[in-house]
Design goal:
By secondary structure, the chain is an all-alpha fold. The chain has 12 helices and 2 strands, in the order αββααααααααααα. Strands 1-2 form a two-stranded antiparallel ribbon. The radius of gyration is 23 Å and the shape is globular.
Length: 287
């Protein structure tokens, strides 16, 4: 029986300890606040699970959760297929490969708050290039500051522009790992383009697609900076996602107990949904 070398854990252990330290202390603080009430001066009163019950029964929480789930659903059904299509269209050899890869990576290099500010200016109806073009050239009534539909279209378009590249790069990495012999065999058998995609490319991309879906789900379900900078949750509460509402409760209203309970519920939903995605996408894998 081959002996497994465990010395590799020595290199990972410092990082594990650091991450655990940085994660456990804030988590313990949040749990402490979620079961207590405070009126300042660090005086706490036991409240039990009351905050959790109030949050789960709150119409405000349910509405924000619905908007967050709707946003994530739209992101996944747009970005994942679009990323696959773009990856399939990119060259595998030649001069244009690095050009395409660098172009795809550029949106992800821009800081999140800059992306939100950039799209805010870009889409303003009077001074923004896109907003001015739609309103004054095409004659389309477009104002994301007043129209909820326009605000939703803007934040979805912004996220697709910013993060589809991640799916593209992951899928492209899976495609370039496919040996040429697979394509040669398919060509000899007279396989159609759809058959090549269905039986050669898609199975080889399954692992990277799983990673892409998980990353895009977690990122989009916890997104905050870009939509907050872009719309601030408005007009009204039409784009107030769960993350934005959580910050409003914690910092705007300074209701630490409800905010802590809400953040733990938020974390539990994200963790469960991520596990569910991973289980469904890997259940047919050969062990």
């Amino acid at each position: 029986m081959r002996k497994v070398n465990q010395k590799g854990w020595l290199f990972v252990l410092p990082v594990v300890i650091l991450v655990a330290f940085n994660a456990l202390i804030p988590m313990m603080t949040v749990v402490n606040y979620s079961v207590q009430e405070t009126f300042g001066d660090n005086v706490f009163f036991w409240h039990g699970l009351g905050w959790f019950e109030d949050i789960l029964k709150s119409d405000r929480f349910q509405a924000a959760l619905g908007r967050q789930a709707f946003f994530t659903f739209l992101i996944l059904i747009i970005e994942v297929p679009l990323g696959v299509i773009i990856a399939l269209s990119m060259p595998r050899k030649g001069f244009w490969v690095p050009v395409c890869l660098v172009t795809m990576a550029l949106p992800m290099l821009i800081p999140w708050n800059v992306v939100g500010a950039m799209w805010n200016i870009f889409t303003l109806p009077d001074i923004g290039l896109l907003g001015y073009f739609l309103n004054h050239v095409l004659g389309v009534t477009y104002d994301m500051t007043q129209n909820p539909t326009a605000a939703w279209i803007t934040i979805i378009t912004m996220d697709v522009w910013h993060w589809t590249s991640l799916v593209v790069l992951l899928c492209y990495a899976g495609l370039v790992s496919i040996p040429d012999a697979y394509y040669q065999a398919a060509k000899i058998d007279g396989a159609s383009n759809w058959a090549v995609f269905r039986y050669i490319q898609l199975p080889k991309m399954k692992q990277v697609l799983t990673i892409a879906v998980l990353l895009r789900f977690m990122d989009s379900f916890n997104v905050y900076t870009e939509p907050f900078v872009l719309t601030g949750g408005g007009p009204g509460n039409s784009t107030t996602l769960l993350s934005i509402d959580l910050v409003k409760i914690a910092l705007g209203q300074f209701d630490l107990g409800p905010a802590a309970a809400m953040s733990l519920i938020y974390f539990a939903i994200t963790l469960f949904a991520s596990w569910l995605f991973y289980t469904l996408m890997t259940r047919h894998d050969v062990k």
